[in-house]
Each structure stands twice: as structure tokens, then as C-alpha cells.
Automatic annotation (TrEMBL):
InterPro entries reported in the protein's UniProt record: Ald_DH/histidinol_DH, Ald_DH_C, Ald_DH_CS_CYS, Ald_DH_CS_GLU, Ald_DH_N, Aldehyde_DH_dom
Organism: Gasterosteus aculeatus aculeatus
Keyword Oxidoreductase attributed: yes
Superkingdom to which the source organism belongs: Eukaryota
Family: Belongs to the aldehyde dehydrogenase family.
Domain Aldehyde dehydrogenase: 40-496
MF terms (GO), sorted A to Z: oxidoreductase activity, acting on the aldehyde or oxo group of donors, NAD or NADP as acceptor
Entry-linked Pfam families: Aldedh
UniProt-annotated catalytic positions: 273
Protein name, per record: Aldehyde dehydrogenase 1 family, member A3
This protein's UniProt keywords: NAD, Oxidoreductase
Amino acid sequence: MAQNGTTENRGTKGIAALPLPQPVKVQEVRHTKIFIDNEWHTSSSGRTFPTFNPATGHKICDVEEADKEDVDRAVKAAKAAEQRGSPWRRMDASSRGRLLHKLADLMERDRLLLATLETLDTGKPFLQSFFIDLDGSIKTLRYYAGWADKIHGRSLPVGELSFNWCWDTWTAWNFPLLMFMWKMAPALSCGNTVVIKPAEQTPLTALHVGALIKEAGFPPGVVNILPGFGPTAGAAIASHMDVDKVAFTGSTEVGQLIKEASAKSNLKRVTLELGGKNPCIVFADCDLQLAVEETQKGAFYNQGQCCTAASRVFVEESIYEEFVHRSVENVKKIVIGDPMDPQTSHGPQISQQHFDKIMDLIESGKEEGARLEYGGAAVGENRLFIQPTIFSGVKDQMRIAKEEIFGPVQCIFSFKRQQEAIERANRSQYGLVSAIFTRSMDRALSVSAALETGTVWINCYNALHAQTPFGGYKMSGNGRELGEYALAEYSEVKAVTIKLSETL
């Protein structure tokens, strides 16, 4: 993990020397209802939906399903909580920071339970949930807690002088808790009230955090959590006339729908963190073993279910064969198994639908002539595990080279010249992240300037920090999360001009 950051992925190497945390036994999930005004509610429709453990296929529990009427109630509560004279509006900025720190304290207290729920609901290995997702979530809260009384333009935000609005978000199923914090923490730091719609596949940790928000002492209505589906609850949020801002992490297709709904409603501000088809450029002068290990962390972390996945690896021709060989040997170290087992480093895909999509793309790679170097098959019968998969000889026109796979598939290309690598790396509708592996700092800086991505990593991968802005170019979205830049997404600028009397 990064010493001062959010989700830098160094795997679990080195963790084995520490006393390993153990998942807790969850006999019954306590929080399954809708959270509005600091109270738990059943859905207006009376409907519920199941959430499943992708590692076993077993149902974990049923969760209340929010729809338009519930969204209206939540937005009304959020608007009331930010009105002048409300406890939240009267609270000074430093007190908001203390509440965020208190929430971080409570998440530290419940860290084992939250990590267990995250693994049950997503299938990601427990140690990754505990050491990466929970660590990053807590650090994000503390980072923005520190900002709460330091946000200013030409005047300081004190009490009722600060600007508030009602803000809504969808969180992603691949990092449900972490994405929740990435959005909620800066929003609350700026004094907003929020409505959260967690992904329908993975609602459990968000709902548990609702209980912690109440315990921490946040006033009613400041945070509201609505488990539900995109076409109902999500669509109601995107088109709601009393919602001033939407933040979304997910697919480019859904992001486009949200933008359209914003334009057709009240022109609410929208920030989007969407898909990626992320290039890594590996030059012949690099530390070859480091490049192999880092690009594979990028490709296979969280079963490849990352918008930042290192799915296009361009390797200089002179080291291409050796890079492929070492990649195949390195991937054999990945342990597939029960996500609750500390030895496991690779869990299941999130759902049968997603599993089928990945397998279809793997088959397309074979049919279009890429060389399957390793993996490419399901593990076990009637389960959602897919072997980490490596293709070499990949050509730019192949489906696996163009489409976001969102699964454990690494595509390795070769290149001859630096300019060729840059042009091919940029030849994508996406522009989220990229990476460069070289010992030449001059080359690293010149290539990073030429790459059309919001983030460039040099001799590392997935080095995400709470202090560093994150977001994409092109179809990978707009706006920025994390760092000071995120605060601008959750605040408005107002110019007040005073004409002074000439006698003064």
C-alpha cells in the first residue's frame, strides 16, 4: 500500500510477515434497508432484491429496492438538511472535519467486518479488501477531513457563509466502499448533502456505513443511501430537478445516459469516471522483471475488474519474446481460490453475465489469431472463476485490443519505434491511465507528455493516492476525483462585488 495514499497495489507481498487479519463470521447481515434521514426504511414499492456471493453463488440476503418515490423522499431529506438554519448548515467547517474523522474512526473499529462484507459481496480476496480497499477508504476520509476548514477562494468558509447543494452519486460494484468514499468525502468536506445509490450487485458495505454515519453524529438527511437499480432509482436521480450534481463511476454507455438526462432536466453538473483501455509502454532499457510484475498487477488485480486495468501492453521488439516468457512464468504464481483464504490472490468475476462477456472476448482473441500463451479457461464447474489469461501477437484491430474486457486478460503487443508506440497507445476512444517502463527519465517525461490519458505512471502501476487527482480524457469521462482538484467538483464559485462609498 502507498504510505500516504489510497490504493497503490503492491499485492500482498510482505504482508505474510505480519499477523494476518481474519474475516469475521457473518451470521446475518444487519443493514439491508433504505437509509433516509438517519432512519431505516422499507421501500415504497415493497420490493426487495437479492445480493449474491459470487464465489459460491449463494444468496447472502435480500435488500430493499429503492425506486423513484424513494429517491424523491431522499432528495427532500437532503434538501431540508442543507437549508439555512439547519444543524448541518449552522455547523462550522472544522466541526464537519471532526465528523469525517469520527466516521473514519468507526470504520477503523469495524474494519474486519467491512472487509468481510466487501469480500462476500464482490468476491475479491479478503486481504485485498482489508489492506487496500479499507485502508484507502479510511485515508480518503481523513484527507478530506483535513480540508474541511481550509477550502477558500478569496474568503474563508465559516458557518453559514459556505455554499451547499444537494448532490447524488452512483458507486461502482468493483470497488463499492472505496468509490463511496472517493465521492462522499470531498462532498461532505465542502458542506454538501448527499444521496448515494450503491451498485445493485454490491450494496452491503454502503449500508453498513449508513449506520456508522448516524453513530458518528451527522445530522439527519446529510447522507442518504438508496440500494436499487439504474433504470429506476438511478434514472430518477439523473433526471431529478432538485439534484444539483451527479457523480458516477461505471460504464461509458451509462455515463452518456446520465449526461443526456442532465441536459433534459435541470442541466445539473455531472462528473464521470468511466471505462478504460489502458496502454503500458515497455522500453528495452527498463527493469524487465519490474515491468512484468507491475503490468500483471495492473492486468489481473481484482480479477481484471478495474477501469485502470493494464489491458494493452506495448513491448519493444528487442525484448518482446523475453517479456512474454517472463509474463507466463510470473502469472503461474497467482493463487485462485476461496476469497476468504489469506493465500488467495485471485477470486471470481462478479456475475454470470459478466463471466460470459469475458469468455466471449477470450474466444474472439483466439479466433482472430492472437496467441493464447496462458489461461483462457474457466476454473471449476458452475462457478465464476476465470484463469488469468495472456495473449501475445495481438493486433490493434482485434476485439480484445479495442474493447474494454473488464476481466483477467492481458494483451501483449510489440513495437519498433517510440513514436509508433505513442500513436498506437493513443489510438483509442478511452484515455484514463497509462504507464511507461524505462530507465531514461528524459524518455519517460517526453512520452508521458504525449500520452492522452489523465494519469501516467512511470515504472509503477495502480499508484493511486488520496492527494493525487484521478480522472480521464476522451470517453473515459470528465472531472477529477481525489486531491484538491476534487473539491472544485463539489463547490460553486460566486462573485460578490461591493461598490464602496466615495466618502469612505
